[in-house]
Design brief:
Elements (H helix, E strand, L loop, with lengths): L13 H20 L7 H20 L6 H15 L3 H17 L4 H10 L2 H16 L6 H13 L4 H15 L3
């Protein structure tokens, strides 16, 4: 009996096979190193809003509102997004409204998870800690809010603690 077979490709040996594997691995490595896609203008606004919501949520976590915490929110938004003062004011208004209408934080943290790499999310957690430390007092509600937001951002616990330590040092808190 004759079996019909597709023609066989020449068998790779030693160096040829190794070169093919190395080339494939390099392609995968460089593919993984490509930056996250840049958001469209609408996506950028959503990302700015989500970030502002998280910062304001930490500011609201304790029972009193402090001007130093508000300045920390404004400073974080200015640093992260390079916005003008009037843009920051409008963004804060929109974020406060979004918080009043929100049922949970996932709708905001999901945008950040989609557009920030881990280093940016860790920096975000540090900004959140700076807001919490801005008034010189760290309350239990602030601590819990920060832990929960950090968890929703999938920030590893060690990075969360290091961000806290950097923010505490920057604030001059003990």
């Amino acid at each position: 009996r004759e079996h019909s077979r597709a023609p066989r490709s020449p068998k790779r040996t030693g160096a040829g096979m190794l070169a093919g594997i190395m080339l494939r691995n390099l392609k995968e490595l460089f593919g993984a190193l490509q930056p996250l896609p840049q958001p469209t203008q609408a996506a950028e606004h959503t990302l700015q809003l989500a970030t502002a919501v998280m910062l304001i949520e930490v500011m609201r976590a304790d029972s009193h509102f402090d001007a130093a915490e508000r300045r920390a929110v404004i400073g974080a938004l200015r640093t992260k997004f390079e916005l003008a003062d009037d843009e920051i004011g409008r963004l804060i208004e929109l974020a406060e409204q979004a918080l009043r209408d929100a049922t949970d934080w996932f709708e905001f943290t999901s945008h950040i998870n989609a557009h920030f790499d881990m280093a940016a999310k860790i920096r975000m957690v540090e900004y959140l800690w700076r807001v919490a430390y801005a008034d010189g007092h760290l309350g239990e509600h602030e601590r819990h809010t920060l832990w929960r937001l950090s968890d929703l951002l999938h920030v590893p616990h060690g990075a969360y603690i290091h961000a806290k330590m950097r923010a505490r040092q920057a604030a001059g808190a003990a």
